[in-house]
Amino acid sequence: MTTRELTYVKAFNEGMHQVMAEDPDVFLIGEDVAGYGGVFHMFDGLLTEFGGTRVVDTPISEQAIIGLGVGAAARGLRPVCDLMFMDFVGVAMDQIFNQAAKMKYMFGGNVSVPLTITTAGGAGMSAAAQHSQSLEAWLAHIPGLKVAMPASPYDAKGLIVGAIRDDNPTIVVLNKKMLGVKGPVPEELYSIPFGVANVVREGSNATIVAIGRMVVEAEKAAANLEAAGISVEIIDPRSVQPLDIDTILTSVKKTHRVLVVHEAVEFGGIGAEISSQIQESAFDYLDAPVTRLAAPFAPVPFAPILENAYVPDAPRIEAVVRRLLERK
Amino acid sequence: MATPTEALEAVMPTTRELVLDLHRRMVRIRRFEERAGKLVESGDMPGFLHLYVGQEAVAAGVCSALTDADQITSTHRGHGHAIAKGADFRPMFAELYGKTTGYCKGRGGSMHIVDMNRGMLGANAIVGGGIPIAVGAAFASQYRGDGTVAVSFFGDGATNIGAFHESVNMAAVLNLPVIFVIENNGYAEFTPQDRHMKLTDIADRASSYGIPGVIVDGMDALAVRDVALVAIERAKRGEGPTLIEAKTYRYFDHQGIKGMRILYRDPAEVEAWKTRDAINLIEAIGVERGLVSAEEFAEIWAQTEADIEDGIEFARNSPDPDPVDILDDVYTS
Ligand SMILES: Cc1ncc(C[n+]2csc(CCOP(=O)(O)OP(=O)(O)O)c2C)c(N)n1
Ligand SMILES: [Mg+2]
After folding, report:
1. Average pLDDT, chain A
2. What's the Cα-to-Cα distance from A165 to each of A9, A53, B217, B289, rounded to whole Å?
3. Overall domain count for chain B
4. What is the full DSSP assignment across A130-161?
5. Which of B106, B128, B327 sits opposite A302 (nearest CB)?
């Protein structure tokens, strides 16, 4: 494989190009995805390469965008429906959670919905309460949906391909603040299936389970801690639904201390689920309570000083890990 | 496009006070937007802005026909509505700078300006999000019988979202005192109107809901005011909502002053609309009719400039929020 450095958004874009070239049933639809290439450049060049039948601009009608995807998927196509900002799932929610998610089961297995929803989440851009949310726990709570949150350029490409090839409704949540982050990406088409965690870094003193962009912050914290002689293992679940709890448990049984970090609010977040599963399955291995670091229970504030305090970062991750290690 | 008819002129004459009032509202919007846009682009101010320059006549014309007790809901492109409704520069700039003295204490930023004292029920970052809220405000007007009305401003693109259709129909059925104002600037982000709907005149959508649909020149503040007054009177008589389509144009990019990544509009189109500039038009009317002198108009520009400097100065000197208070106001205590 030939590998080179690509940005997160370029890697995602390359995955879209390659999977559309591979499978003529894949099409893309959403607001300003064709002529403009998507407001985050996610879909650059797709209209030129695949034409207006497969790359379609729509009116501002999120409910109809997703509903169209559900119907087309039920007919066997593989729609990629873009929702631009994750906050807009609210407008389309009925089609996502009552329709797409339930058709397989409710119809007794007769209908598959190989629909992919793409969107961008996360805070840190002074975009305020309606353009900054991390709503993955909300989506992951719905049986029938699958939710991935790529945390590197490599994963952005592999997970969009994995999502499109998956026969279920999937949601790929890119992180807005990571769009320009660079990393190694193979030129070839490859796929990362949902439900397979990534051991980002091996370590022995503590485990950090980090979601989405928090993986990057955890890596910075781990580098600092290493300099202080503390060895941290980082697990990126990649998809929060399905959740690869086995990889997390294996790590916990090795390190005995675990911190879960995410951008979404702490209450009812994915960290609560992970923590609960660890305690149920590996209680005897724990030397400290499973700890969470997440956003406070408030909407995302606009002012940079508030937003910085709101979103967890490397220094706070480092501090919490140190506290975890102090417990005897 | 409707222009003030002679009949309207008789009942709603173009007075010196009116020309000055509309001019002041529009100049305040324009200079605020130009300054704020530059402050963001120079990195002095956080976030990103959807600027209202070009569309001033719509907010000014409609809001000049409202009182502080009347309510408006707004959009991501909301600074103009707030200013036209009487919002002050100091808390506006402070909000854009994320300061405690801002309209939302720095919590909301550009897309969420609110001023409950002036009937500005809030800007909205979800396209179409404000439309049903205006219906609710109008419901409260009817419920209380207080003679107030509600106005919802939104774009051409927003009329494609379910919330628009549900709201207009419900308001029609309930005869609510609400005015729906479409600011048709021809684009939803980078998509031109003819690629997001089959209609040329969005006002035609009114017929689906059995209410009047009115088209007005959105570059002519006097014309906008006239159709707004007619709609307001109708609403106050209990005859229900009106859909107004103001044909207008935004001079700057969808977001920020410049930054078009692709050429989605013909530069000649932008220039053509600028020849019909709303502020130039009202100045021409004022001077030609001998109502206002060029010097008086110049004074409004100068006063606006001073107010803007004062607002920026105030904002810059205001304290940042304290993260200790981050959980305040999540709930009403
Ligand atoms: C529900 C929703 N979908 C999409 C967006 C992204 N978006 C922001 S502004 C905009 C275009 C709005 O067009 P229009 O209603 O014509 O208003 P204009 O920007 O022209 O003032 C879009 C698609 C959004 N904020 N909310
Ligand atoms: Mg528009």
Report:
1. 98
2. 19, 20, 51, 69
3. 1
4. TSS---HHHHHTSTT-EEE---SHHHHHHHHH
5. B106
Range of the domain at B193: 12-315
A320-324 average pLDDT score: 98
Q: Does B125 touch chain A (CB under 8 A)?
A: yes
The phi and psi torsions of B45 (rounded to 5 degrees) equal -120, 140
- Predicted confidence at residue A328, as pLDDT, reads 78
Whether B7 is in a domain gets the answer: no
d(CA A311, CA A132): 11
CA B156 / ligand 1 centre spacing (Å): 9
pLDDT at residue number B10: 65
Residues of chain A found within 8 Å of residue B196, distances taken between Cβ atoms: 58-60
Instruction: Look at A306 and B107 and tell me if their CB atoms are within 8 Å.
Output: yes
DSSP symbols for A199-238: EEE--SSEEEEE-TTHHHHHHHHHHHHHHTT--EEEEE-S
Is residue B293 within 8 Å of B300, Cβ to Cβ?
no
Question: What pLDDT is stored for residue B258 in this prediction?
Answer: 82
Quick check: is A131 catalytic?
yes
> What is the pLDDT, as a whole number, of residue B265?
92
Question: Which atom of ligand 1 lies at the shortest distance from residue B55's CA?
Answer: 21
Best A60, A62, A176 member to test B by mutation, with max B CBs in 10 Å, is A60
pLDDT, averaged across chain B: 96
CB-ligand 1 contact for A40 (6 Å cutoff) = no
What pLDDT is attached to residue A1?
Answer: 76
Could you give the percent of chain A with pLDDT greater than 90?
99
According to the model, what pLDDT value does residue B44 have?
A: 96
Residue A123 has pLDDT above 90, yes or no: yes
ipTM of the complex as predicted: 0.95
Enter the tokens of residue A37. Answer: 């290439």
C-alpha span between A250 and A246 (Å, rounded): 6
Residue B54's region, left for phi above 0, alpha for psi from -120 to 50, else beta, is: left
Number of Cβ atoms within 10 Å of the Cβ of B21:
16
pLDDT bucket at B13, cuts 50 / 70 / 90: confident
User: Per the domain annotation, does B328 fall within a domain?
Assistant: no
Instruction: For strands B71-73 and B191-192, give the pairing.
Output: unpaired
Name the DSSP class of A99.
I
Indicate which ligand has the atom closest to the C-alpha of A86.
1
Give every CB contact of residue B196 below 8 A, 6+ residues apart in sequence. A58, A59, A60, B156, B157, B160, B188
Chain A residues whose CB is inside 8 A of the B320 CB are: 303, 305
Q: Which element (helix H / strand E) includes B16?
A: helix B16-41
Q: Do B190 and A35 touch (CB under 8 A)?
A: yes
Residue B320 covered by a domain: no
| Interface touch B162/A61, C-beta < 8 Å | yes
Q: Which residue on chain B is closest to A86 by alpha carbon?
A: B126
Q: Is residue B333 a part of any domain in this protein? A: no
For residue B145, what is the domain's CATH number?
3.40.50.970
| Residue of chain B whose Cα is closest to the Cα of A87 | B126
Taking the CA of residue B188 as reference, the ligand 1 atom at the shortest distance is: 13
With tokens 């008589």, the residue in question is B237
Domains along the sequence of chain A with CATH? 3-186 (3.40.50.970), 198-325 (3.40.50.920)
